[in-house]
Amino acid sequence: MSKHYTVITGASAGIGAAAARAFAARGHSLILAARRTDRLEALRMELCAAHPDIDIIVKTVDLSAAENVLRFYEEVHTLPLRTWINNAGFGDYGQVAAQDLDKIRPMLHLNIEALTILSMLFVRDFADVEGTQLINISSVGGYLIVPNVVTYCATKFYVSAFTEGLAQELHANGAKLCAKILAPAATQTEFGAVANNNPAYDYNKAFGTYHTSAEMANFLLKLYDSDQTLGIVDRETLTFRLTTPQYPYAGNSARNQKV
């Protein structure tokens, strides 16, 4: 049994579930968090059967509710964590003026607030632990504004900028923990159905070409194994590349505040 745990939020489906399978295959014990207990338990049973030497803990939690975020972290942070993957999130297609606030509010809380709080707490407790990684799932829409999904893209611009800035900060401080970003393009998950409020959403009709969740989990492993900060998919060609941070960083500016 592995002595170290990888935490994956949004683990009940899509990229989160595929990532759980990929890391389990490498012998990682897992903490899987999501809203749907039945999905989590089914995944736990599948992975335990395939990999009996690892430990799998499931946590049913809705991280879009602010009060649940701290509680979830407090339940797991005393375990020997090594990797934290903030994957939970969702989107919404539509013109900004026509979007439903009752859907946008929890999206903002989940995509931005929950991810930030969990990242901050993990860095606070594990920055000096050898081999630790924080991987936040952004989007190619965190580097490119896509029509009709502006609000979602804005949340992912935040995720990318926050995580790149954190990565720069950790490096400057000589921390042992590495912060990284995975930025997918079109990937066949429940994202399309949720974002379009359409249970029958068809990726073949909407995109024609796309990645599977398993392919994206493989890209995630490549990012995990690398010394790069960003793993990003080109939206036009769907090619994946590992690269350095992309946002301008004023680390050496003479105009920075003097402390």
Secondary structure layout plus pairing:
Layout: E1 5-9, H1 14-25, E2 29-34, H2 37-50, E3 56-60, H3 66-76, E4 81-86, H4 101-126, E5 133-137, H5 150-172, E6 178-183, E7 187-188, H6 191-196, H7 203-206, E8 211-212, H8 213-225, E9 230-233, E10 240-243
Helix pairs in contact: 1-8, 3-4, 4-5
Tell me about this structure:
- The chain is an alpha/beta fold and 259 residues long.
- It contains 8 helices and 10 strands.
- The protein has a single domain, classed as 3-Layer(aba) Sandwich (Rossmann fold), CATH 3.40.50.720.
- It has helices spanning 14-25, 37-50, 66-76, 101-126, 150-172, 191-196, 203-206, 213-225, and strands at residues 5-9, 29-34, 56-60, 81-86, 133-137, 178-183, 187-188, 211-212, 230-233, 240-243.
- The strands form 2 sheets. It has an 8-stranded mixed beta sheet with strand order 3-2-1-4-5-6-9-10, with helices on both faces. A two-stranded parallel ribbon has the order 7-8.
- The mean pLDDT is 96.
Q: Helix segment count?
A: 8
In the CATH hierarchy, what is the superfamily?
NAD(P)-binding Rossmann-like Domain
Element order, helices and strands?
A: EHEHEHEHEHEEHHEHEE
Using the coordinates shown, work out and report the CATH topology. Answer: Rossmann fold
**How large, in whole angstroms, is the Cα Rg?**
18 Å
